[in-house]
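In response to the reviewer comment on reproducibility (Comment 2.3), we provide here a single inverse folding case reported in full, input and output, so that an independent group could reproduce the run without further information from us. The structure tokens appear first.
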């Protein structure tokens, strides 16, 4: 766990590598294509946690993940400003779906490289969106190396999963929507894989002067950002978690730099807590998430311990569970009964 920054400490109004105008341009590109996702009061989670809880179900977006925001922002720029007709990406799953969706929207080709053993449902979804999917290597990093090789060989545009200003700006539109909802949250809990979402959200809110406490959450089995921030340098760690959307062995360079400035704390959750959180969200909100998508709820229920009367937002980042994970979730009397 990181040491929390004092609530009275000053907030920078310049987010450094992520200027506000980049976020506003991203929102302009996404407007009319992706629907805004408002924060919604959850009576069930509020009763369970003893505070006001608001959920932001990014799993309601096309491709059922926030990742389509950053992918669409990047692909839009490549297709319209650079006349790119083919994009390549590496993905554990949701980013690849976002790239495939964005490429189809712009009428260009997409190739997505995924690790062997990638979530079958996500791979099938990428293919159904028209992407050429290649399975290479055991890790996201292996897939990324191959994707970079293919992009260079074919002269295609490369769409980073999280370590790219355009992608982060697209994810930052999540923070812009949070600010515009005007709920004056005390805390916002954000899942972290490579760090693009938390970096975009945190930088956007801080640039706007919003003092909401930003709490990141990672699996105990994939704590790359937590370890990196504790060490003060980007640190590689093994990533073996049921939350394939968070299974990244090291954070991106840009997300790490932004998180060092603007993220107040990072909490770690267990594999069992992730599965339990999926059940909780399904039971109380009737929303199907994946482990990464329920990570913020796992942290809220087991680790945040908010004071009564406070307002907490949780981002449900994705809803594409692997079949084996879904079977574990449904193997529970409170759900299946």
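Designed residues, in position order:
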């Amino acid at each position: 766990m990181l040491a929390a920054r004092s609530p009275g400490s000053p907030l920078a109004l310049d987010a450094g590598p992520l200027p506000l105008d980049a976020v506003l341009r991203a929102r302009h590109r996404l407007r009319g294509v992706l629907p805004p996702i408002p924060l919604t009061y959850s009576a069930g989670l509020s009763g369970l946690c003893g505070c006001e809880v608001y959920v932001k179900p990014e799993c309601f977006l096309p491709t059922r993940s926030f990742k389509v925001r950053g992918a669409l922002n990047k692909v839009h720029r490549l297709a319209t400003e650079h006349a790119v007709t083919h994009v390549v990406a590496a993905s554990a799953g949701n980013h690849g779906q976002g790239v495939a969706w964005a490429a189809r929207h712009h009428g260009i080709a997409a190739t997505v490289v995924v690790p062997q053993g990638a979530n079958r449902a996500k791979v099938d979804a990428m293919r159904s969106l028209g992407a050429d999917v290649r399975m290479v290597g055991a890790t996201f990093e292996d897939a990324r190396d191959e994707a970079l090789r293919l992009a260079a060989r074919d002269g295609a545009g490369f769409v980073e999963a999280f370590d790219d200003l355009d992608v982060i700006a697209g994810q930052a539109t999540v923070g812009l929507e949070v600010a515009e909802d005007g709920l004056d949250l005390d805390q916002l809990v954000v899942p972290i894989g490579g760090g693009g979402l938390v970096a975009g959200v945190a930088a956007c809110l801080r640039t706007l002067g919003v003092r909401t406490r930003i709490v990141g959450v990672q699996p105990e089995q994939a704590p790359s950002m937590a370890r990196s921030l504790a060490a003060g340098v980007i640190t590689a760690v093994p990533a073996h978690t049921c939350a394939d959307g968070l299974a990244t062995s090291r954070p991106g360079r840009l997300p790490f730099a932004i998180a060092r400035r603007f993220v107040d704390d990072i909490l770690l959750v267990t594999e069992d807590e992730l599965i339990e959180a999926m059940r909780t969200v399904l039971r109380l909100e009737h929303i199907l998430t994946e482990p990464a998508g329920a990570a913020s709820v796992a942290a809220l229920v087991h680790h945040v311990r908010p004071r009564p009367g406070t307002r907490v937002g949780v981002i449900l980042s994705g809803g594409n569970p692997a079949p084996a994970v879904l079977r574990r979730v449904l193997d529970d009397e409170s759900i299946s009964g």
